Input
Amino acid sequence: MFSAPLARWLLVPLAAACLVVAPGAAGADEGEDDSPRISTRITAKGEVIAEMKVAATPAAVRAQLAGAEKAHNLAPTTISSKATADGKCEKVALQTRGFISPFVLETRRCPTATGWKETLIASDNFVEYWNEWTVKELPEGGSLIVFKTRTLPNVAVPESLILSQTRRVLGKLMRNLLGALGES
Output
């Protein structure tokens, strides 16, 4: 058959076509997943950031995001997640929707002073992967929730398409969190 590098390059047009024709994929309007409560943006460094203000207290938000499995299940791309204790952190075996088959990765999710940070331990499917949840109390009450990520799969697809799709996924993730908080 084909060698692995050749097969990878032969899949480029197929993967790009899947991104463009998939519902809610990169070809759609950039702002369609934003709402008055949720904003998403892509930074010059290739980070994708989603923010929203909620009426829920930081403790209520943290309760919804506590545990890697619970947090990952808010993402529409998660197929499965299995967390195991690793000191104060969690190791996470994660499968997410890929372009043709599921992406498989192992991460480490650790608490921070303001939320959680998750970093890549191992994966053949990702060049770079990390994310960070931040939850801050607002002076007027409620919480500001920020999710920041850098996700770069090991596929031969333009990074601009990957970033655009990631932006849409974060919009859906935040809407799912709103629903979990009873604020949808």
User: Anything to note?
Assistant: Confidence is low (pLDDT under 50) at residues 1-34. The CA atoms of residues 49 and 148 lie 4 Å apart. Strands lie at 38-42, 48-54, 78-86, 89-96, 103-111, 115-122, 126-137, 143-153.
